[in-house]
Amino acid sequence: MIVTLIVVCEVGFWVLLAAGLAVRYLLKMARTGLALLLCEPLLEVLLLVVTAIDLKNGAEPDWRHGLAALYIGYTVGHGHRTVKWLDGHAAHRLGGAPPPVGPPRYGMARARHEGAVWLGSVTAAAVASGLLLLAARYVGDDGNTESLRGWISVAWRAAGIHGLIALSYAIWPKKAPEKGPEKDSGTAPGTVPAKASAVPARDPEHVPDLLVGRAGEDEEQVR
Fold it and tell me: Based on C-alpha coordinates, what's the Rg of the chain?
């Protein structure tokens, strides 16, 4: 039952997300679309309540309850980033907004971005650990809580691996590709080279002399 509910919550997450964005941008009903998007956390609350009821009814704690806690933690840590990313693309394609700015790709800016994403994984591990500890306490010492506590190490192991990947971007920053050297055209950048004139240029200082010479020739022809 728990696994089925996890699948239902995952499908419901994407259905509510698609419906909320469609209502918000296609039907131009911003408040209704926002209300649909805000209903998504209710799916995690429903999963949490059903998991607690299952344990209350005497179900043996196993991997299904641990998986439910990890799913809730992941949604808390990374769900808002997924919604924000999809909302930006929907606003661009459906609402006429400018294209969303993507994450940085190179240098320490990329390292800081990866660090922020890793903090989401830390949040997910912390939320999952808290839920698993509450579940273990709820079951009590009489029940088998080893499986629940084992999922805590799984959550933090995943966060640790993600942390090493994020740290690698700071130790070995990804460099931007180098641009090829531009050919020297002899002109300033952004200017169009002037075409050579077929008429030879004259020195302005000799223009009066030329005019005087032409005037003398005309006077002699008149005489």
Answer: 35
